[in-house]
Design brief:
Chains A, B: Keywords: FAD, Flavoprotein, Oxidoreductase. Chains A, B: Residues 310-589 form the MTHFR SAM-binding regulatory domain. The structure is a homodimer of 596-residue chains. Chain A is α/β, with parallel strands linked by helices. Chain A folds into two domains: 3-301, TIM Barrel (Alpha-Beta Barrel), CATH 3.20.20.220; 327-350 and 362-593, no CATH class. Helix content of chain A is 40%, strand content 16%. Chain A has helices at residues 3-13, 28-43, 60-72, 89-101, 131-142, 165-184, 198-210, 227-236, 243-252, 256-276, 291-299, 335-341, 367-370, 377-387, 394-406, 428-436, 479-491, 536-554, 563-574; strands at residues 17-22, 48-51, 78-83, 106-110, 147-152, 189-194, 217-221, 281-285, 327-328, 440-445, 448-452, 466-469, 471-477, 495-501, 506-508, 516-522, 529-534, 576-582. In chain A, helix 10 packs across helix 11 (291-299) and helix 18 runs antiparallel to helix 19 (563-574). Chain A binds chain B through residues 350-355, 449-450, 464, 466, 468, 493-494, 496, 510-511, 514-517, 520, 522-528, 530, 533, 581, 583-586, and chain B through 350-355, 449-450, 464, 466, 468, 493-494, 496, 510-511, 514-517, 520, 522-528, 530, 533, 581, 583-586.
């Protein structure tokens, strides 16, 4: 969807919106960190996110890769920056084609900074010399397909900021006229350069309107995060900084925490003035960090991290998976692995799982998602600290699960994100007891009997509804524990289960084609929504992934042939993976069956 | 589905089953009565019902028509009898083709009785002389398509019942050999002639098994209902009646009620012995009456009318509408009209309404269903008694609705069956108040918040589940009442409504494409089922039917140009039909909005 349409919809609804800008990290580690941050920040509901192109297109591939994942795996409307720097037409064509293929529909068209080591921007052979030509070219080649953002400069472009007041005034109006040309050529909306004088931005908007620029103009907000960074950036951009800010910063410049805190305070003051003046939304330059940008938005009341709205219990990816409203529970702690394995699906399950799903799960070939916690030496060290430098036997393994439940460690191979899902808080004690008893849990949810859909922890789906869950738990257990457990489960009327080992031997009281809705919601004027299901078919796909992670993630921490590896390999080869649903969401007590 | 497959499935599950046999009534009135009875009796869950062909095929068209409706409108697996009497091959071909076209898959192949006025059966030119040839012919022409039942005679066919004991023995074994031929030729199962000696039936089964007949054999149970009828039938069939039965009957032969009661007692004794001896199911000759057949089944514990299982809140028609699991609420008191208007649909909504429905409702051309209560002079008299010989104004009309709510009258034009739906019992007082206040209700349901699916009144869907409802009410109201009501509805957070008049003016707070699930159920190991919905699209179709019934049903009671007709026409022309859902099934109180 075009960002300008989302912006205009927000304006029409009178809803103050915000957006986050990121840059491509230089290391793989940095990219992973960015993804973790994105995962949280996207949940806050930005209208869009954008990712810069990197000076001179040096990080083109990284930018493209991140933009694609932002759009498709994190499910946020994504805008990729594109600059003329070092970009011959063929390279531009390629980039636009790739972006389009990846389902992105938004480009921020920029001239770009000079390549590293150069002082001045120069047009390359077979390339473009300014953003205007780039906008024209995109419109010429791709018609109306792309939404195009362009940059606006409340203090004129730094190249044209001079001391001569008369000349400066001319330069300013020239830059406005040029901005109008970019809009007339097909630009949809404007994001401004950073600024620290609100009155300058408001004057800029007024001046834009006076020459007939009518599109949305978003203020670019750069939170002050470090003294050094602030100095470099404002010098580079020739930003006019009010002496009050400079003075306040100078006084605390050696105290990083104080600078950050001041940055949030100053940023919030600026944003409040902007919003009071009628600015419809805020574009945050995050510098890939969460705290300052989110802190400012929270301070001005645009964002409440304690009330992040959820349309479904899991995050939708509306851009590329429109209408997807149901997923199996098995991947709920590995949503990106699920997205990855179903990227090739032509259509996504909508409303119900049984009738419309494609059973063709793809393989999980992407290393990065497969080995979430051990994909670098640094991560391996952290994982080893959490999961043990050596494993003497299954007891040591069980101990890891117990410590995970206690919150003493925050990662497990079967969860992409760190820490227990907040949903499990209601059953934390039971999970702890379960793991201590040797049932090593990797997924669970408590029963819910009609909580308001506005519940801060469990609510989803919009106002006025009720949400429900059947209790679920999924765990590995040793073969000798299986039969006694199944005997108990068989006597529990409301319990359905599937147990499977790595060889694919199955013990179950469910029909193979059955689909069990374990999360559902009742809303005003709508059909019943049932976004999470348990189904044996998907479980049989998931179990391969689940068993594989013993070796492919955890096992890689240890030397080949080590006894620790053997411990894990034995478990993977002989233990069972068991999925249990208590179907009585009103009076059931799943953990009673285990004697807990 | 073939009946033998249903029988075998029951046998495999160890579930004692039953079936009902009917004959084609001679009058239109009789057909309507049969349909009302069928409507109740099909709900008891017979494995199949069958309808006889009538002596000499005299009622062929009636039989065909009834069989088609039994299968498609009442949703019971139906077997049509077909006899050789007076049936040339072309007539048989036509009948089989029609039956097949109507979706029936089961035939009881009989030789048939001699035509009226003849003593002996004679084969007609170009026809068949016995059931064996008929079975062969059906298999030859239709291969494996039809399930074929055949008749068995525990006392030999009456034509071969003679006094000479040796000859009788030979005749008996001849008739068994002939029965085996019918099975070998393609008969799937056997229904026996009526009998009153259980040991005779059991011997018959044993003898059948001894000569290699392995298919299911159902005892045909003819309850004694009247003394005269019993005498006629047993004489005609040369049935061997134990003297104890004859004596008992003779003693009370002038007391019809006592005969019926004795018939149930005797029938129950017989059936108990049969079941104790391992008979898998009971075939009841109902003679188109309910009490005796159902009474016997209840007495032996095969049927509990107080616990009629419902797979959905409305009765499914699995044979021709496989997988149909959702319907709009509007026709819930006129299910046959709904079936009728959607007979041409290629596929039926399954699981959800919004995605899969065909919006193409057919017209309601079938007079019989359109004018349910006024389709004959006799019915008109009854309707006039209920709805008033004269209507002075809307107050008289409202009074009819009030008396309907009070149970003083049992029919309304907007309900096919007589009496208020039992579901409304929870809100009877509120409905009464609503109608007294001039909101003339034609459909409603109370809110339910998780009743066990085994609830005798509201339960459906099988064991171990919970059922839910949103409160619903639909009514006509005078135009001057509309705006004050809508003002109230607009302030009630959880209420959605659509109001429409005959001209199609709409007042609503629902999106046109919205679909609101108002009945749903949560079951072990299954997706959430949501069998009843409220949707504006169907409502706009329904409203034409609802407004039309003022004139086309009620109005026909009065002279053209009469003031009573004018009262009804005025209401139809100016009043509004309003559909209201309280979306809060947990804490809502729909009737509060009305000040009730």
């Amino acid at each position: 969807m075009k960002i300008v349409d989302k912006i205009n919809a927000n304006i029409k609804e009178g809803k103050t919106f915000f957006s986050f800008e990121y840059f491509p990290p230089r290391t793989e580690e940095g990219v992973e960190n960015l993804f973790e941050r994105l995962d949280r920040m996207v949940a806050y509901g930005p209208t869009f996110c954008d990712i810069t192109w990197g000076a001179g297109g040096s990080t083109a591939d990284v930018t493209l890769g991140i933009a694609t994942k932002m759009q498709n795996l994190f499910g946020v409307e994504t805008m990729m920056h594109l600059t003329c720097t070092n970009m011959p037409v063929e390279a531009l064509d390629n980039a636009l084609a790739e972006v389009r293929k990846a389902g992105l529909q938004n480009i921020l068209a920029l001239r770009g900074d000079p390549p590293k080591g150069q002082e001045e921007f120069t047009k390359i052979e077979g390339g473009f010399g300014n953003a205007l030509d780039l906008v024209k070219y995109i419109r010429e080649k791709h018609g109306d397909y792309f939404g195009i953002g362009v940059a606006g400069y409340p203090e004129a472009h730094p190249d044209f900021i001079v001391d001569d007041e008369a000349q400066m005034k001319k330069n300013y109006w020239d830059s406005l006229a040029y901005l109008k040309e970019k809009i007339d050529a097909g630009g949809d909306f404007i994001i401004t350069q950073l600024f620290y004088r609100v009155e300058r931005f408001l004057q800029f908007v007024e001046d834009c309107r006076s020459i007939g620029i009518t599109c949305p103009i978003l203020p670019g907000i750069m939170p002050i995060m470090t003294y050094g960074g602030f100095k470099r950036m404002t010098t580079f951009c020739k930003t006019d900084v009010p002496p009050a800010i400079t003075d306040a910063l100078e006084a605390i410049k050696d105290n990083d925490e104080a600078v950050k805190a001041l940055g949030i305070t100053l940023g919030a003051e600026m944003c409040k003035q902007l919003l009071d003046a009628g600015v419809p939304g805020l574009h945050m330059y995050t510098l890939n960090l969460e705290r300052s940008a989110v802190g400012i938005l929270e301070a001005v009341g645009v964002l409440d991290t304690s009330k992040v709205p959820r349309t479904l219990p899991w995050r939708q990816v509306p851009a590329t998976r429109p209408g997807e409203t149901v997923r199996p529970i098995f991947w709920s702690n590995r949503p990106k692995a699920y997205l990855h394995r179903t990227l090739d699906w032509d259509s996504f399950p909508s409303g119900r799982w049984g009738n419309s799903r494609s059973p063709a799960y793809g393989t999980l070939s992407d290393y990065q998602f497969m080995r979430r916690h051990t994909s670098s030496d640094k991560r391996k060290d952290a994982a080893r600290a959490a999961w043990g430098a050596e494993l003497a036997g299954p007891e040591d393994v069980a101990d890891v699960f117990v410590r995970y439940c206690k919150g003493e460690i925050t990662m497990l191979p079967w969860a992409e994100l760190e820490g227990l899902h907040s949903e499990t808080s209601l059953i934390k004690e039971q999970l702890l007891a379960l793991n201590a008893a040797g049932y090593l849990t990797i997924n669970s949810q408590p029963a819910l009997n009609g909580l308001p859909s506005s519940d801060p922890q469990f609510g989803w789906g919009g106002p006025g509804g009720y949400v429900y869950q059947k209790a679920y738990v999924e765990f590995f257990c040793a073969p000798e524990k299986l039969q006694p457990l199944l005997d108990k489960l068989d006597t529990a009327a409301a319990v359905t289960y599937i147990a499977v080992n790595a060889q694919g031997d199955v013990r179950s009281n469910m029909k193979e084609e059955s689909v069990n809705a374990v999360t559902w919601g009742v809303f005003p004027g709508r059909e019943i929504e049932q976004p999470t299901v348990v189904d044996p078919v998907s479980f049989m796909v998931w179990k391969d992934e689940a068993f594989d992670l013993w070796g492919s993630e955890w096992g890689t921490l240890y030397e080949e042939g080590s006894s620790s590896r053997k411990v894990l390999a034995d478990i993977a080869a002989h233990w069972w993976l068991v999925s249990v649903v208590d179907n009585d969401h009103v009076k059931g007590n799943l953990f009673e069956v285990f004697g807990l």
